[in-house]
Specification:
The protein is an all-alpha fold. The chain has 18 helices and no strands.
């Protein structure tokens, strides 16, 4: 057997080992969640009751299953239909479905990590990033409950991976898939619209920097991606216009969510205390949305210093090392969550800092990942904030943390590939 054959055998063996490791991590994560739900403790079920959104999502899902108009009482657009549709599809085992999606998120982190390795990140970045993402306690816990964070994270990561593939090899079908997946993510979590809108504009301007030979194709693909996005969202927009007589781009929940974050009793958390005084605001769903939106803006204009103070409080809540809720902040929980979160933060900071000093391609990629982090963080300096809302960003931190870990365990290979690009 010659040297080339030996190297080929080693490469094939390494690929099989990595594939087996990724599959094992997926199965371990899923089994852990299944064990919890096989015999859920009474305390765990009590904690679920503190997420009122869960009940609302299941009610919307039941209307879809029954074939009835999409509404809960008089609320016809209080939540986007993405997550309720998902729960309706997996109505027999909704927790299992969410658990599988949460486990699949880890696989997408690995795929993105492999793409980073191709742009100059150290070997083993993908595997290290996947393991770091698996260690995040908040991602694991939210992967146990049917809330929007887990499926949104999956769709966001999938859209980012498609975008990475399109950057390397622009294909029309990839661009169309990006538009569809991005719209699906907005259906699950409407705040994603801000990220995708800004990212699309930046990508369009970035096409001016590519060689003229591929500029037209990339610009055309981006326009086609936006067209698919609009076409996917159009049924929701048209339906809302038929009901309310005006355009409702996301939901009628924006106003009360904004007022939940900006009001005289606001402390950065969500409590919706003002909903107890139903007689003091309009009865119509759309009128309520407008009413609370204007009240929030008026209050913010009249209290700028408090708005800034609340922004600082929300920032600390967003990046907190331990749970925001005091009832969840027991010593065992703090002792588990604090070191794991510090590990992810520290590794991400060092990995990102190293990457921006490497090849232009890796540097640009590192800078680009700041966009979703900045958008979602700033968004929750305005609306309410908690560790729950940073969960979609943890995979991005894990990617750069994977770079740091890979540099530590394989320092001689750091930046060995892609630096010349």
């Amino acid at each position: 057997m010659n040297t080339a054959d030996i190297l080929d055998d080693r490469s094939a063996c390494r690929k099989r080992l990595l594939a087996g490791t990724v599959l094992a991590v997926f199965i371990i994560q899923l089994l852990c969640r299944l064990l919890i739900f096989h015999e859920p403790t009474e305390r765990f079920l009590e904690q679920l009751a503190h997420f009122p959104d869960i009940d609302l999502y299941f009610k919307y899902a039941s209307t879809i299953l029954a074939g009835n108009p999409y509404a809960v009482g008089e609320c016809r657009a209080l939540r986007a239909p993405g997550l309720p549709l998902l729960l309706a599809i997996g109505h027999e085992q909704p927790y299992l479905l969410v658990g599988m999606i949460a486990s699949a998120n880890i696989v997408l982190v690995y795929a993105l990590g492999k793409w980073l390795e191709g742009r100059g990140a150290p070997r083993c970045t993908a595997l290290s990033a996947m393991l770091l993402a698996m260690l995040d306690p908040y991602s694991f816990v939210l992967g146990l409950v049917p809330l929007s964070e887990t499926p949104f994270t999956f769709l966001m990561l999938l859209s980012l991976y498609l975008g990475c593939c399109w950057i390397d090899r622009p294909r029309t079908w990839i661009a169309m898939a990006m538009g569809f997946v991005a719209a699906s993510a907005v259906y699950v979590r409407p705040s994603g619209l801000a990220f995708y809108g800004i990212a699309w504009v930046i990508a369009l301007f970035a096409t001016l920097l590519v060689p003229a030979t591929s500029r037209w194709q990339r610009s055309r693909d981006l326009l086609l991606s936006a067209t698919v996005f609009v076409a996917t969202m159009f049924p929701w927009w048209y339906r809302n216009h038929q009901i309310f007589g005006t355009i409702v781009i996301t939901t009628t929940n924006v106003g009360e969510s904004l007022y939940d974050g900006w009001n005289e009793r606001a402390d950065g958390s969500s409590n919706f205390w003002f909903k107890q005084n139903a007689a003091e605001f309009p009865t119509g769903e759309l009128d309520q949305d407008r009413h609370f939106r204007q009240k929030a803006i008026d209050w913010a204009i009249a209290n700028p210093a408090r708005v800034v103070e609340l922004g600082g409080i929300k920032f600390l809540r967003f990046w907190s090392l331990w749970p925001n809720e005091e009832r969840l902040r027991s010593w065992p929980v703090v002792l588990i969550t604090t070191p794991l979160t510090l590990l992810i933060y520290g590794a991400a900071l060092f990995g990102w800092g190293w990457s921006v000093r490497q090849s232009p391609r890796l540097r640009v990629t590192a800078m680009a990942t700041l966009l979703p982090i900045a958008i979602f963080c700033v968004m929750h300096l305005i609306f309410v904030s908690s560790v729950r809302y940073r969960v979609p960003l943890i995979p991005l931190l894990a990617l750069w943390g994977g770079v740091s870990v890979a540099r530590t365990i394989m320092p001689t290979n750091s930046g060995a590939r892609g630096v010349e690009s």
